[in-house]
Amino acid sequence: MKPGLLVCGVILLCCAAPAQAGELFRFTGHMDFDRGVLGVEFLSQADNRLLALTVNREPQRGYTFQITAAHLRLAQKDLSTEITGSLRFVREKTGPWDVVLGRAVSRYTLWDYAPYGELSMLFEWRDQRLWVRDFSVGHITAKGYVETRTPFNLDMALGFNGVDLSDFLSFWTNSQSVFADGLVQGEIRGQGTPEHLALKGRLESRDGVIKNLKYDRIELNIAGVYPRMNISDSTISQTDGWSFTVAGPFDLADREHFQKQIEALTISPLVSSNDSKTEWTLKRSDIKKSGTLELKYLMNKNSGRIEGAEDTAIIGVERKLEF
Known about the structure:
Layout: H1 3-15, E1 25-32, E2 37-44, E3 50-58, E4 62-74, E5 77-90, E6 99-111, E7 114-115, E8 119-126, E9 129-137, E10 140-147, E11 154-164, H2 165-173, E12 180-181, E13 183-193, E14 196-210, E15 213-225, E16 228-238, E17 241-251, H3 258-264, E18 266-269, E19 271-273, E20 277-285, E21 292-300, E22 305-306, E23 317-322
């Protein structure tokens, strides 16, 4: 079998959306290995979902390909797109070829029937590793590698640059019922094997809403071995309210109980501390629509009393008005 046609067949399998049990698909295809031509098409008989691949051999050990997808279901969204690209087989050592260089771009992409940022990708296969040199789609980027031999070690970093908060939560919760408005920034890095994948990430969102929570800023630090993660050193600064720290275990695979896991996290007022005192802050925004009132409470560690108290423990409150 020609190596290029085999590689493109793998691309088709990777891009295919999993079919639901009992679904029927019409399959058509043709192959001509002498001319280096391949064409396959899957069409759902129920709702006209389409996935098609065409490959053509080019001079100088290369192939071009096109993937057409219509109304595929991904993360409970509808995806339609057209991806074109090329593969080039290069000999750097002995043998017919030992390096594959590839590129792919998309056009006409619709995510849930709305225009979406196009895909752009540069990749390379060498020394039994698939290297993602540059990848972007919408507001998501990726760089790293995956080994193509067991145990399939990988080191991959995903970047988020203004990802819609509602889409982000829908992916993890497998539900579209969570009302959210805002953008997500940050990075998640995965290292290890699919069976033992260590994840570490830092995410941030500003000026957003999740259900009834309106916040100024969320900083989330998460680490662990998938799916069991631990949240630590994370904060929520709530509009017209306290700043909180957030900590606790979290199971990414348990999407059914996502809301219960959130409720089980430990949430405490944000506190800073040194040798002599402990400080926590309450912020109130929109003071006559012109600024922010900040209240700071100080506790003297030597006396164990909150500074500012008269008959009670409170003997002073620092106030700051910012514009």
